[in-house]
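forwarding from the other thread:

> can someone predict this with NDP?

sure thing
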Amino acid sequence: MVQHNIYKSVDSFMEMVVTKNPGEREFHQAVLEVVESLWDFLQENPRYIHAKVMERIVEPERVILFRVPWRDDRGEIQVNKGFRVEFNSAIGPYKGGLRFHPSVNLGILKFLGFEQVFKNSLTTLPMGGGKGGSDFDPKGKSDNEVMSFCQSFMTELSRHIGPNTDVPAGDIGVGGREIGFMYGQYKRLQNEFTGVLTGKGINWGGSLIRPEATGYGCVYFAEEMLKTRDESFKGKTVAISGSGNVAQYATEKVLQLGGKVVTLSDSNGTIYDPAGIDREKLQFVMDLKNVKRGRIKEYTVKYKGEYWEGVRPWKAVCQVALPCATQNEINQAEAKMLVDNGCICVSEGANMPSEPEAIDVFLKGKILYGPGKAANAGGVAVSGLEMSQNSMRMSWSREEVDQKLHGIMINIHETCVKYGKEGNFINYVKGANIGGFIKVADAMLDQGVV
Ligand code: NDP
Ligand code: 2IT
């Protein structure tokens, strides 16, 4: 059989992707990274090429776009956009978070959904990939407004999801409060108490360690990377960005392992505390961010340290950097600054926080660089464990879940080493992309032209 339309190069494949998905910059960026990693592997395994697995895997199975009307506290009607990108269900129900942030658009959710497919595969749990959200901005909204929005959002979303179909969770702007409001509305509409969302409250079906999981997992992954060079967190200075869910629990785990965290940030700026953010100071940040919903700047009103307005953490001298805020938050110049200042390890709590040019700096500098789809997979992994507990109608102890999480992160690290070894160097980008791809691609081959 003569094969037509076989792409001869990464460039020609990307030209097709860009033409079919115009303007979706972050999506193009995420696809390019994966295609570059996979290219040689695909040439050596032409069955994937002949079955057009790449052409299929970059196309979401389904995209749902909807109107979210709600009333604010003044009684005025507001309208937001709602999205759910159901990217790939080859190895399990669609699974992935919901992001509420004014920057949300289809291209961003497609990049996140695409990454999720590979990440979920790496966990070894049976979860497909998806992502959703809204351009709704929870900042400055009352609890009542957030609830109104969440109820309206779920009113439409509820008809598309289900415990065996699509299981959303949190992401930026979606934490315990929002999951609670959405779960309540789902239950009202469907008259069903079921594991349709993860990140639920501990009294109504949530899993212990889910709030901690992404941050802890990111540090466990970094610990494994450090071990390959006979290093550990003990005595290391660590720069962390963000001050939300992932950043908070990454900080907690670094402290437990004997490291010193000197930065946290939010979208306005960075706090730098050379004395280190200890347990008490972290508790202050948790209260500030999760209860008072204030700005990180207030840290320097209470504690010593500097506030860098409009500046990201990466000029801080550190040996380990954990970007835990958002995409494209480390550029080439910042990556150079990190490496020049002696940073030997970057483990990504956020999704795609490093720009492609920054990744090049890390790889050329031969430092330990753990990409998000491997390093932050702990969150969705414990979501998978929450689904298992819900199905069994039982719950595991903190120790049990933490132990399973730790085991999964060690396992993901091993997968990255297996597929990413280049002589003495481990290319975790390549390892994560190939390791995540194989299981999904093989399932797609088994299931025919779908
Ligand atoms: P949160 O909403 O709890 O916290 C987000 C943090 O990042 C806040 O400090 C926020 O600052 C900052 N931030 C958000 N957007 C921007 C921006 N455009 N520029 C600068 N700072 C920004 O979210 P999470 O901690 O849950 O998520 C953080 C990252 O981790 C995201 O990339 C997410 O996709 C990823 N992730 C999350 C998982 C989870 O389980 N929650 C799992 C895997 C990955 P501000 O308060 O000013 O908005
Ligand atoms: O990016 C992610 O992996 C998440 N936001 C968590 C997804 C989930 O389903 O727990």
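The domain at 213-375 is CATH 3.40.50.720 (Rossmann fold). thats all i got for now
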